[in-house]
Specification:
heterodimer; A: Rossmann fold; six-stranded mixed beta sheet; four-stranded antiparallel beta sheet; 10 strands; B: mainly alpha; MetI-like fold; two-stranded antiparallel ribbon; about 70% helix; disordered N terminus; binds adenosine-5'-diphosphate; binds magnesium ion
Chain lengths: ~290, ~325
Amino acid sequence: MSVAEAHAEAARGFIDVRNIGVTFGRDENEVVAVKEVSINVQPGEFVSLIGPSGCGKSTLLSIVAGFVKPTKGAALLDGKKITKPGSDRGVVFQQYSLFPWLSVRKNVEFGLKMAGVDQNKRLTTARSLLDLAGLLSFENHYPDQLSGGMKQRIGIVRALATSPQVLLMDEPFGALDTQTRVVMQEILTNIWQQFRISVLFITHDIEESIFLSDRIYVMTARPGRIKAEIKVPLPRPRTPEMTDTPEFMNLVQELKGLIREESLAAMAPEIKDRGLSGFGMKVGPKGVGELY
Amino acid sequence: MSNMARAKVVAIPIPTGQIDPERILESTMTSTPEKPQAPVTEGQAAPAPVAAEPEVVPTLSFRTVARSLFKHITRDRIISFLLGCISISALFLVWYLGTKYRFEFYIRFKNVPTPAEVFNQLTQVGLSNKYLVNIAISVKRILTGFFIAIAIAVPLGLLIGKYERVRDLFMPCVEILRPIPAIAWVPMSIMLWPNNEAAIVFITFIGAFFPILLNTIHGVHSLDGVLVRAGRCLGANEAQLFWNVILPGSLPHIFTGLAVGMGVAWVSLIAAEMISGQFGVGYFTWEAYSLVDYPAIMLGMITIGVLGLACSGVIRMVGVLLMPWLAYAPGGRR
Ligand SMILES: Nc1ncnc2c1ncn2[C@@H]1O[C@H](COP(=O)(O)OP(=O)(O)O)[C@@H](O)[C@H]1O
Ligand SMILES: [Mg+2]
């Protein structure tokens, strides 16, 4: 039985975020980062969170990860309140977060080592995960020897190594170039297809969110609230060809419209009032893509 | 620049044509491992992929042995070595010329022994028990003081760096004691400790302690927070986090502290030996001065220099062995 199969048999996590509010700072420095947000991720579901930058996406993910305590409300994993980080939630960060002093394989083994898993078991698990990521031949390299895309792939399988209930990803491909990013999305759907783990995925890339997700939450500009919830009816497994279908295009249009309003709202009030055309820019529904 | 120079010498089969590092999609689907990418950095330390290439299977012959020797002798290293020789020769030349012509213009070379006299002294004294025992005693004192300093300063530094409260508790003391040079501790140390030996080791310890402590604290502070968060997410508890993330992450700065601390430890040791000592290289040098034995003074000084150099060399070597990843770090050692 492969790691993926073993994992897929285990229970998958159910994330339930209820009426979360987060306020940073005090008095005149007070920043309301998130206001009254309720979201959920069903067991085995891939859910994206999309919204203009600064709207509180990372804050929300940090609450589920256990780094930040909400000012209001609570986040639950399988009915239990989340209070601190733990290996039941795998996290992939936007910044590269591999330990530079460990070899690629030791990085993947890290979580298992912390859990006291014996060396042979660690080795076989890490090897099969690296094989899954197509990076087995790099097991003895150091992270600094690898490209950005490779590092993120290792980050993903490292987070999967401890068989977490859910996978939390904060713009994991944000630092990659467009070509690499497209390939990484395909790899991620492939891995997800095998693990069927619940995923909360943060992005500001519309196509990315549609290609990967079962469901998408659109957030408003700060203070972040949920503006819309969109189901993605595209069949699984997803293939690159699907991005050319009319269904996909329609979803892109729909999301672009929603996001455009919020991106404008996130900017200075003058821009909001006049609209971008007031600055001599031609903004059709497609042109908003240039904003990112 | 040095990477390029080295890459020319190391024989690594670099496939023609660009390898696209992201050409992995098929491999994820079929689960066949990707071909190793041509080593991005120098190949010397890229272990697995090179060994996997069949044509590199080594056959032990004079040629391969010679080649493996030669691959370490790069142009870059030859140049560094030559420049090092020039720099030391220049020092000797000034000394030689100054003593030969008895240079005297404000600085007086009149009583300075010639290199030949010092060399003579070495061949006589150097074989004597007294000189070697003095060296052994100094080295023992240095190592004792230095290792006690490591044992206290590194854990304390990690705690101070990590916990605000520990910092609040210890830093006021540290800030007051730190500006006091180790030499100023000599009288107090003699009063404080039951014997001379303990007093000297203590002064050596004081010298090494603060550089190691402060660099360790700095190491913790400059550790990328995302690594600590990653460690937590992967299930590390507080103790595991210290051992597996914070310590290795601070190690480069700790080693900077060790190198600086070793230097200060020698300064402190020699001063202590000169003032209060029996035995030791510092005592040897001071005794030579009171006996007006000029060549011995010079020999003592050179001995101190060489011992200090050897100690920092050992620290650097241990650092390279313990932190092999630094060879690839951006803006790192090379
Ligand atoms: N630790 C913090 N202290 C104060 N303000 C913060 C902190 N973290 C985030 N914020 C603020 O909260 C808002 C939301 O941030 P974030 O969740 O990172 O947004 P996003 O990930 O959507 O770009 C931002 O305006 C940011 O400046
Ligand atoms: Mg963010």
